[in-house]
Amino acid sequence: MQRKTIRKAVGAALGCIWAVMVFAQEYQVSGGAKPPLLALDNTLHRIQVWLVCGMEGLTLSHTSASATHRWYRYRTRALDYEPVASTQQGALSTVNHPEEGYGYFVMEGDNPAMAHFIWLIDYSRYPVNFQNLHAAEQADDLCEALRLAGVNDTPPLAYRTPVGDAAVVERYFEISYMTQIWNESLSQFVSALVIDTLRGDPLNASVKPPLSDTEIQLTGDFFARHFGMEKTFSAGQYQAVALSVRADTLLLSNHQTNMSAGENELLAPATIRFTAHANTPVAALHIWQVYRAEEPNSPLVRFPEATMEYTFDRVGEYIVRLEVSDRSGKCVNTENTYRVSITETQMMVPNAFTPEGSPGVNDVFKVAYKSVVRFQGWIFNRWGAELFRWTDPSQGWDGKYRGKYVPAGAYFYVIEYTGTDGKDHRKSGDINVIRSTRLKNNTHTE
User: Which one-letter DSSP state was computed for residue 186?
Assistant: First the structure.
């Protein structure tokens, strides 16, 4: 079975810029055990949040057109700022050993409203940690979604905006598991590895449920990946319950040219093969049911297999429903329903034909019919002798008896058939054999 990988990324939404260069070409952050990471660019409040790995050797730098600029910081809001010592070399100024938990900025003049800000967080102090991670088995939507449960002991990456609002930097995690996907070219489900991105708290998120029994792993966060501190947590082995079901139909009846079927008409007897495809072994029970449209609660047949062949031989509207259940009985799929319309029976009998006259044109005595369930016909001469018998309404009499064409004249037919109304019908009458005078050879004399 083929195996594919499905990776769902949240590109720009990550808000992570894998660089150490800076904000509005003003600030630089360097130092720490690993290169600093720009984790959030909050343009609304003109503040960037940088993650660093340890505060050792950390510096903040600023390049300004003014040599009189000064550094400041705030803990709660920018209006409550305090000055910060810095060293200057012309237009470049540097803050050595900045502290975590402050918003830093350079102010040219005395109005912080026009400044841009940087907030530092020592990521090494806020490691990712989960306890008792597992798939939530009591969720109301377990047939449509996978949710994780457990204890999230991961501390928040908190900061303050310049106006004093408390905020956090959202973390991003990867969840991975095996599933099954439908392969159109193979017309079957194949194995696939899903790698999806969860934003924020993974215990408050959901993803598409696995369609296979699988181990579920949570990896992250993405910031930890940058610093080489990434962790993987196992949610254990998960027994899948969600279902994915596809179905197809195949008309097995052999409709002939002398069937007077209109466009979109389905003629009896119509044998249709209904086939269900699902993510086995999760999908354990398949039930096909056929109803008359006017009696949707009284099935005509209940077939407990993935494939059903059913012959529709009565006029009317039918509903065919597929119900698939998982092995635990927690999930049921009823998305596949078909409507079948069977037309009324018609039987039209010609009164003349010209055997051997114009090959392919009215040279065989055939009925024109629609929705005939059972058929039998006879041809007799004027003395009552049987000349021909047939049971397939798509066939007919070529005007021969014992290998030779019968003479022109009147013959008698009897046709008995069963219609889609469930009743037996009978037709009889004369059929005229018309032959050219030049075609008298190879003619049977009665």
Answer: T
